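Aim 2 progress update. The chain analyzed this quarter is reproduced below.
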Amino acid sequence: MSQEQRYRPDDDCPLYSETLEEHIVAYTRGTVPNHGRFCGNCYTPLSPDTAKCPHCGTLTDSALPPVEEIPSEIIAMLREQRQTESTIVNSFAYAGFIIAIAAALALILGVPYLRPESGNLIVATIVFTLVLLIGGRTLAAILGGYYGDHYAYARARRRLRERWASWVASRG
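Predicted structure tokens:
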């Protein structure tokens, strides 16, 4: 059985390694301190005897020596990235659900047999419920889980690259 590999974008922005994300999330939840040994370039957590960052390849005796804590700007960048992704994915999913509601209403009001005045209220309710449940779940998954996810990741990553470039320029 093969182990799932995490996607690693090739966009000249070394943020975020899996271990850094895990550390930042644990720190924001209050389960670990923001203290340790981190790569001076990408802020990936390092063990005391590590000579080269496993994520970005920066040597610990280079111009960017290891730091003792993750800068608050880096933590804010991850929060902004995740917030952007969450907002967009949820918006796409809700749009899918709204489309399913509109389609179910159009079906009920458009098919004469299902109209309320036809006297087939139970059949219309069953059809409406099935279209709403199946269509809502399917469209929310497709729009939010696929299209929204791809769009949100690209947009959040683009903003992260901009903030990262600004951060690199400001730190010297």
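Residues 121-171 form the longest helix (51 residues). The helical segments are 18-29, 72-110, 121-171. These observations will guide the mutagenesis experiments scheduled for the next reporting period.
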